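Hi support team,

I've been running sequence recovery on a batch of backbones for a student project. Most finish fine, but this one hangs at about 90% for roughly twenty minutes before it completes. I'm not sure whether the input is malformed or the queue is just slow. I've pasted the structure tokens below so you can try to reproduce it. Let me know if you need the job ID as well.

Thanks,
M.K.
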């Protein structure tokens, strides 16, 4: 199933069901895409306005970057489900003999790495989107600044949500050195971009009050 082609109602129903996919990773990717799209909305309401003629090219550039991030995030909605399936199958592999145990451990480790790679990519894209939201908020149409704030808040939520999917996979990895490296990569993004997203939402809030 292509989770980006079904209706919002169907997607939510799939999330609420027993199937493990789509799950938190796919939901985070979709939320990130929605948040990024809100930045593009601010841009769309800015270009062509005489009042913002001096920043129009900047905004057009931002919209181009945002569009590419949106496309990538939407692609990761399905990709997250795809990489989870081998991991789900690996949990059910037999381990009756030493050979089976070793084979299961090998397959599990690779599946965990693959399952971890997608939420890390979602996080990276959300970080880039938060950078864009900051500029949309500063340069975009004042009448649409609230949308930049919502976009930043959603991208922050998607960033945090994707990190949970990193940590649940690294927790089970046998290669602890690799796990710690992936954890640090995720933590570094959280440490830098949660405050930046908060800065954007605070900036927007101050402009609204």
């Amino acid at each position: 199933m292509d989770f980006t082609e079904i209706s919002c109602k169907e997607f939510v129903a799939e999330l609420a069901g027993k199937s493990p996919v789509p799950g938190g990773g796919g939901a985070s990717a979709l939320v990130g895409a929605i948040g990024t799209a809100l930045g593009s909305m601010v841009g769309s309401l800015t270009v062509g306005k005489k009042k913002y003629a001096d920043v129009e090219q900047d905004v057009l550039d931002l919209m181009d970057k945002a569009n590419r991030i949106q496309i990538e995030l939407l692609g990761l909605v399905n990709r997250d489900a795809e990489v989870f399936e081998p991991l789900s199958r690996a949990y059910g592999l037999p381990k009756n003999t030493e050979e089976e145990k070793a084979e299961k451990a090998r397959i599990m480790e690779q599946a965990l790495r693959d399952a971890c790679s997608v939420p890390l990519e979602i996080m990276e894209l959300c970080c880039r989107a938060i950078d864009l939201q900051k500029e949309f908020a500063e340069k975009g149409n004042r009448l649409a600044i609230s949308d930049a704030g919502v976009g930043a808040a959603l991208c922050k939520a998607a960033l945090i949500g994707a990190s949970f999917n990193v940590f649940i996979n690294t927790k089970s990895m046998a290669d602890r050195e690799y796990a710690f490296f992936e954890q640090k990569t995720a933590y570094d993004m959280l440490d830098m971009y949660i405050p930046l997203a908060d800065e954007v939402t605070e900036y927007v809030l101050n402009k609204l009050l």
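--
Follow-up from support: It reproduced on our side and the slowdown came from queue contention, not your input. The longest helix spans residues 98-139. No action needed from you.
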